[in-house]
Amino acid sequence: MRLRMILLVAVMALTAACGGAEPDTSAAAADDGPPKPVALWGAEGGFVTATMNVLRPPRVVLYDDGLVVVDASRQLTLTDAEAGEVVARMETDLTGQPPTAEPKPGAPSVSDVPDTVLGVRGKDGKMLEVRVPALEQLADFYPKGLVDAKKLMEGLATRAAEEGAAYVAGRVRIVAEGAPSAEGTPSPWPVGVPEPPGAVDPVWQEDVEGAAVDAITKAVPAGQEYGRSLFTTGSGTVVVLSWRYLLPHE
Length: 250
Fold this sequence. Notes:
Layout: H1 3-17, E1 37-44, H2 50-55, E2 60-63, E3 67-70, E4 74-77, H3 80-94, E5 115-121, E6 127-133, H4 144-163, E7 165-166, E8 171-178, E9 187-188, E10 203-209, H5 211-219, E11 230-232, E12 238-245
Helix pairs in contact: 3-4
């Protein structure tokens, strides 16, 4: 049984226990829909480039079918029991936390670092998310549950790196950032890839699928350095072209 069905059954049971109407058995059809995140670890904000701000994926996402995607580049699949345990532990760690956590008095000031985002889908089907400023730097000043939740997701990231496989998808997010003073010789804009209609300020983005995915992944292979992804648009604008695979829920 897929985890999404386990969650669905839990919601139906909760509805019945609360005296709700008899659930419509057609709700089981939700099992055939696209996977939904049930636990996540990500980052927001911080002193990052405009491209990173747009392109940055969640660090780890666990879906209701057991799929784990790490950095939009690695994946593995958990058993129902493993996925259920992750969700249960995340729910225990995050329940009762405010939307934005605050460190205990006496914590030093930390700036220009991303907020940690931790999330879990509860039995009510809603996603509970907690933002934790500078969690890594101020771990001793936050509740243990928040630190434990991050460590749990870090474990999934480590496991995906060691046991998982490369993550690929049929949809890609393209980001172009203006780079008029960048060093290097720009390449002509890749054929088959949509391009900015004019000036890029500060970034331009487009989600693509089909033939455009093959075109962009060939033109800018994964792992290329900054100077090797310079391109010139048809209008003569020099940009740094970047991309990543989109996640199932994006």
